[in-house]
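Summary for the funding panel

The consortium committed to producing paired sequence-structure records for every protein in the target list. Below we show the first two records in order, beginning with the earlier of the two.
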Amino acid sequence: QVQLVESGGGLVQAGGSLRLSCAASGRSFSRYSVSWFRQAPGKERELVAGASASGNTYYGDSVKGRFTISRDNAKNTVYLQMNSLKPEDTAVYYCNARRVVLGGTLDYWGQGTQVTVSS
């Protein structure tokens, strides 16, 4: 069992920066792929960025070059550094941890943190 708690959201002006954190509890966190998703009102949840257990990273097209995902396995924490924020980045941001095991997939979500970017 893994529990995820996001923090760091808030209100920021366009062009500003925020850093989101996702603290995980539970064992074997380093074996999980971790991702940030976001969901704006009336829109589907979309992938923002991800980091595999081996350290590979990937990003949604809309955030490439502006957002950076990182993980600190010693602290069981994942970060999302968001720079050059735009009003369209406004959404609830969710942390996800996933691991394929024998017999299925372990999939955990945090409760979300609101990010609001004003123009």
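The next record, for a separate protein in the list, is shown here:
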Amino acid sequence: QVQLVESGGGLVQPGGSLRLSCAASGFTFSSYTMSWFRQPPGKERELVATISTTNGTTNYANSVKGRFTISRDNYKSTVYLQMNSLKPEDTAIYYCFAVNRWNMRSNYWGQGTQVTVSS
């Protein structure tokens, strides 16, 4: 059974930090490109960051560059999103996404974790 389980969300003040985790099971984690998406209230889901399968190549949305860092631990089958200097506009549900590097039809979503940035 495939599972992507996010954790680490919560309420934080502007300027604060959070670290999201996404624990994967039921598939070969090291063969999947991992991403974080987010969906702000009333808006479309958007890509935040992506990390490749083995060499760790990363890409970020312009809105989070320099503040967020995506990383992965293939031994723990876990992907992380370190979020620093958080802003109210970072408030969203954050989703973990996995896609097979050779077959894009093999992809999975997590259930999401709420991040709220507010004073």
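Regarding this second record: The chain has a mean pLDDT of 96. The chain has no helices and eleven strands.
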